[in-house]
Amino acid sequence: MLGGWQGRVARPSPPPPHFLTSLLHFASPPPHHFASSPPRHFHTSPLQSDRCELTSKRYRIERGKYSQVSEAHLQFFRDLLGPHRAIVGEDELERHNMDWMGSVRGASPLLLRPTTTREVSSILTYCNQHNLAVCPQGGNTGIVGGSVPVFDEVIVSTSLMNQVESVDTWSGVVTCQAGCVLEALDQHVAQFGLIIPLDLGAKGSCQIGGNVSTNAGGLRVLRYGGLHGSVLGLEAVLASGEVMDCLSTVKKDNTGYDLKHLFIGSEGTLGIVTKVAISCPPRPAAVNLAFLGLSSFEDTLSTYKSARSQLGEILSSFELIDCVGLDSVEEKLKLKSPIAKHPFYVLVETSGSNADHDEEKLHNFLNGVLKTGVVKDGTVVTEPSRMAEVWSLRERVYEALMMDGYTYEHDISLPLPVFYKMVEDMRRHLGSDIVRCCGFGHMGDGNLHLIVTARQFDEDVLNRIVPTLFEWTAQHKGSISAEHGLGLKKRNYIHYSKSEASIRLMKQVKQLMDPKGILNPYKVLPEEKMK
Amino acid sequence: MLGGWQGRVARPSPPPPHFLTSLLHFASPPPHHFASSPPRHFHTSPLQSDRCELTSKRYRIERGKYSQVSEAHLQFFRDLLGPHRAIVGEDELERHNMDWMGSVRGASPLLLRPTTTREVSSILTYCNQHNLAVCPQGGNTGIVGGSVPVFDEVIVSTSLMNQVESVDTWSGVVTCQAGCVLEALDQHVAQFGLIIPLDLGAKGSCQIGGNVSTNAGGLRVLRYGGLHGSVLGLEAVLASGEVMDCLSTVKKDNTGYDLKHLFIGSEGTLGIVTKVAISCPPRPAAVNLAFLGLSSFEDTLSTYKSARSQLGEILSSFELIDCVGLDSVEEKLKLKSPIAKHPFYVLVETSGSNADHDEEKLHNFLNGVLKTGVVKDGTVVTEPSRMAEVWSLRERVYEALMMDGYTYEHDISLPLPVFYKMVEDMRRHLGSDIVRCCGFGHMGDGNLHLIVTARQFDEDVLNRIVPTLFEWTAQHKGSISAEHGLGLKKRNYIHYSKSEASIRLMKQVKQLMDPKGILNPYKVLPEEKMK
What we know:
The structure is a homodimer. Chain A is an alpha+beta fold. Chain A is built from 19 helices and 17 strands. In chain A, strands 1-14-11-13-12-16-17-15 form an 8-stranded antiparallel sheet, sandwiched between helices. In chain A, strands 6-7-10-8-9 form a 5-stranded antiparallel sheet. The first copy, chain A, has a 4-stranded mixed sheet with strand order 2-3-5-4. In chain A, helix 11 runs antiparallel to helix 13. Chain A is globular and about 75 Å long. In chain A, 60% of the residues are buried. The N terminus of chain A is likely disordered. The interface between A and B is large, with 94 and 93 residues.
């Protein structure tokens, strides 16, 4: 139905009227769906797992004064859940004690798999009474060590809490349990012409409760905003076992303090999210994806400005990959870029309700950026499987980089004018001590993923990256964690993004809501200095 | 440039291709800009002001154990701010001691007008030390008595804190002081092709700090979402005088608990918002407004569903007015509807980046709803002054209703299928004891304004409306305050929308952040039962 278009450097002639095309230049079929994030069936990276020492050792953490799980405790949980949902055994717990990258490892002796809010409440009531520390866990797809125990915390997994309770098709609201896998939930609401306003590489494994607890961002924040806007309500169980019902399903509710926000992004340290209600926009009828090559970061900035003004309400993603990232996916994963090599690449996605209109807007936008020469080359795809191929160039960058050996991963927010300067400065700063320094990410949200790779973990390299990176970020009024959270790995750097007064109030809120500190200890809030 | 179109009941023939039109059928020019909300220059409604007794008397409230403002206190504030920003005198304070409707009245002896965060901090430090209660006040455009003192609280007005600090044109972020008037702020960002994602009738008077503190909703939540999504950061001064810097300007920041949300919608009871940073979308290049007449509420539902699917990303408002409301603006304000009488009317607004595309989408939508007969009549306007005229039919409903004498105003959220049933049930329930019972509001957000009018205030009528209305709302899982907040008037009904556990946690948060309870007492949280 649609014709073909390939922009070319020297001839910025306007594309023909019907220029949108399925992508013809992919050399090989995409491999099994893996994306940049953990697969449905968990395997740690073979290159990283063998060097994954215990988190407590690597990060020199002192165990809190919690009880240890005893036979009596175990019996209580077996009586509550039955033997198949109160699980012990090193092998059985292996994938729950370690993150998918093999970068953090705990030693929990017990995994609990409740199916109802009531069971979560009983578990926490008991743990609080018996001073047992708890690590809440969803799909365990996090990056900062937030969803894995550090010592012997009891793991409370929401995996079996995967029921959709209702879909309000009038207003577009889905209400479901926390353990629903993001992709499955999106497929569910698709039947009703709706879309979950959140999409990320880990969608096949991550759970909506975990997404909410970490305030996950992903690919379409530019279009749909973040979860503080789209979560209408939630239910959470406090450390005491008390059920906090903030499960409003209306779009506006100004009755008192909006407590649900305390649970969005607090990474399970203030409560375990058990249900959520999410506002779902109409599912777009038309989606287009353009993959563009550019000569400089300045040109990506101009392109973004044009996209924002010309694509307006249909702009749904604006993603950056530098040549280091694209070279990696070509070299390590044998994916092939549809266009020739350039210093920078951007993916521009549009989503709208009218294919012809979107096509014309995209045409006008591309015409403009080609004419002015800020875009040198590009291709447009509309067929879903071809779009998935192009998306995999972006989504699998991290996976490719991991194959260098060890990755130092950082996820920061920066003002756009200095968005990529950070990568260049870091590259110079680290010199030849590393394999690569790559920058990619959600440029439309000001969210950069900066990845440094090396053959293996080296504390000296880590110390050269951190805190330099955070100081730089703070100087430029960025955030040291845009969307991944603080978890374990970044908690002691919180002061680079938050004021002393804020951190003090956070600690007071934690003390108020979880006085014994049983919920996800060693995470989010900075380590207390020993007295 | 554009042709004319008037849909007609009996002939749902498709409109001609170029059907968008400036509105030709307005009988009289619009009156001086007044909207449904307080004018820039404050006058209480003459019909209501004479019966505005003291709030403490009408609502039988007991004064908290706060100090009274003494000469020594006054001297401190005069030394801090100078004589012209520490104001005394009944006349000078009149418009600050009463709301614009004349429905609540306090007796503050002192109005403070700081210009900087540092001054707010000094004021609160002093008030906290000396146990002086404080009423923060922005534009004083609230409906629920939240921005007016109840007894002799010191009024801290943000009116002079009206500086825009910066506009990030790359990402579309404005950072400003709390006292910026919404309309002026919007005009400021318009220079940069941006729009403030918030619009409401009171825009000429309300201040952005007050908007944020009450989590104001308004006309375009349907398109841009609420303030929890679009406020990127804020600065607030706590009761202790401590400055809480949560003034992030990046779109994503997952570093610890997102404390700013505590100040959004807590109506000044947890802190005084002094600065805000707001994400501003590109200003739409094209805006269209359709005014439609319908025979039944079921038809408005069908029309909404069509609008949502066919207008998709350009749908920016979907507002309902019932015939009671429209008759009132015609009768009391001498405005004239551009179409014949119908039981229901909806305003459908589109905002987009391409006028031709929007026009075509709107055409297709209107064609569909005319063909199926769910819409009986309608007109479309695109010229700004004509759009303002049509908007005034919606925005001035409340003003017209006030002219009946006394209004019992309620702002609730309901699931769409029962959205209007509430009005019909209430009309039957109240019978002939009232003048009118009117329903209108932000239907696209599920937000109904239900207004009962009478010749004068009658406690018996109030008691027949409340708690019946709230019980009904709670049974249907709605919210008893969609966008106006709880303030003074609704605080004791909070349990209809919030669980016991939630209310308990709210009180604990209040106790944590304002242990002496000096900030906006008698508001939001329910009255403590006397022991």
